[in-house]
Amino acid sequence: MVKATPFLLVLFLALGAHGVKKCSLTGRWVNDLGSNMTIGEVNGNGDFDGSYHTAVTATNNKIKVSPLQGSMQKSPNQKGQPTFGFTVQWSFSDSITVFTGQCFVDTAGKEVLRTMWLLRSRVEDINNDWKATR
C-alpha cells in the first residue's frame, strides 16, 4: 500500500495538470444570430484587434464590417479560460458597442465566448441621454 501512494499522487498530479483546457480568442467566431467576428493574435500584453460583421442593426444603413479593439486579462493567475473586453466602432452608424465576457471550453472541447454588451448611440442633446444606451 505504501508503494502505491507515490504512484497515485503522480497520476493525480499528471491528470490535474491537464484539467484546465485553454481557450484561445484568436480566430473567427459566429453567434446565434449570424454575426461574425475575427480576432487577430493576442499580443504579450493581452491586446488584440479584429473585425466584426453584425447580422442585425437598428438603422436603415447598409451593414459594413467594423473594426474592433480589445484586451484579454493577462495575469499570473490566468487559468486558460480568460476574461476579455472589446469595443466595436460601427462603420455604418453613429454608435459604438462595448463587449465583456469570458472564453470557455465546454465539456465537448468546443471553445465558446459568453458576453454581455452595451451599445451607445449618438443623441442630439442631453435631454435624450436616457434613451442612448441599450
TrEMBL record:
Q: Which PROSITE patterns match?
A: AVIDIN_2 (PS51326)
Q: Which Gene3D superfamilies match?
A: Avidin-like
What superkingdom does the record give? Eukaryota
Give the signal peptide as a residue range, or say none if absent.
1-19
- Recorded GO terms, molecular function? biotin binding
Q: Name one Pfam family in it.
A: Avidin
Q: List the disulfide bonds.
A: 23-103
Keyword Thylakoid in annotation: no
> Keyword set for this entry?
Biotin, Disulfide bond, Glycoprotein, Secreted, Signal
What InterPro entries has UniProt attached to this entry? Answer: Avidin (IPR005469), Avidin-like_sf (IPR036896), Avidin/str (IPR005468), Avidin/Streptavidin-rel (IPR051764)
Q: Where is this chain's protein located in or outside the cell?
A: Secreted
Q: Does the keyword Secreted apply?
A: yes
Which family is this protein grouped under? Belongs to the avidin/streptavidin family.
Q: What assembly does the database describe for this protein?
A: Homotetramer.
Protein name in the entry: Avidin
